Amino acid sequence: MLQYRTDLAMEAHELLCAKSRAQTLSGVDSRTVFRRGCSVTSVRIDTEGAARQLGKPRGRYVTLDLSPLQKNADDLLERASRAVGAELRALLGENVKSVLVAGLGNANMTPDAIGPRSAEHVLVTRHLRQNGAFSAFCSVSVLTPGVLGRTGIEAMETLRGTVRAVQPDAVIAIDALASRSLMRLCSTVQLSDTGIVPGSGVGNHRCPLSRDTLGVPVYAIGVPTVVDAATLTLDVLEEAGKSDVDPAALRGHETVMVTTRDIDAQIRELSRVIGYGIDLALQPLDFSELCALMG
Fold first, then answer.
1. Would 115 disulfide with which of 5, 48, 104, 204, CB 3.0-4.6 Å?
2. What would the pLDDT profile of 192-218 be if each residue is shown by its tens digit?
3. pTM score, two decimals?
4. What is the pLDDT of residue 243?
5. Neighbouring C-beta atoms of residue 270, cutoff 10 Å
6. Is residue 260 within a helix (H) or strand (E), and if so which, with residue range?
7. Helix, strand, or coil (residue 287)
């Protein structure tokens, strides 16, 4: 049987609902609202049965569609950062006072570089908290653990040691994801409170980052930067009204990924949106103050 591949809970829910011809699945609460200029879809997976069906851990997934904001480039950074920051703040709650931000992925492979590039735009304050001017700020530290092939160390192992030393209230992990649709590439941001599996977006699954493995809550920020080639083919054929595809015809193409031709510019733009969004969620700053601090 042919399978669509997606890391987005919203897409997984849409696919299963379409297959079963239902509005929603038992054990899943899904709702979409329009706020701050973009569509926000919240999917909450409440039961283990629903989690198995969707192939996602139980928890909350919030997906922002930034495409309406991307039509106006003049204030894209500010509006998109505010939208991401507001949703992340709501997901984190009031009790998070110290955070370790992890920029996951391979900085040398552009579609996988969203984590390390976003981390460059996060305001680091852990070493400044004793300064009176920063006493009201959230304590933030940043780590880019690299990839196993270059370090010989799993990201989970690096982060587990750092968590023990720094003792944050939570970890925010940023990574690339895979979508089932070209339309969602670099225009969608998924936030979740379920942790993340590094490398899943580019087909290189590593040890999961979660409360079980790190000992603290792990919040994930993911941006779809690639589409699996077989999934893209299925999507195009479905749009053309052809659903009777021989599974053997797509076998062997599971490792081929497709991205946009302007992925360099897209990653550069979105990494600032993610980094600034984290800053606005954690710190008592408005956008103009943040820009002044970050240069």
1. 104
2. 999 998 755 555 556 889 999 999 999
3. 0.92
4. 64
5. 24
6. none
7. helix
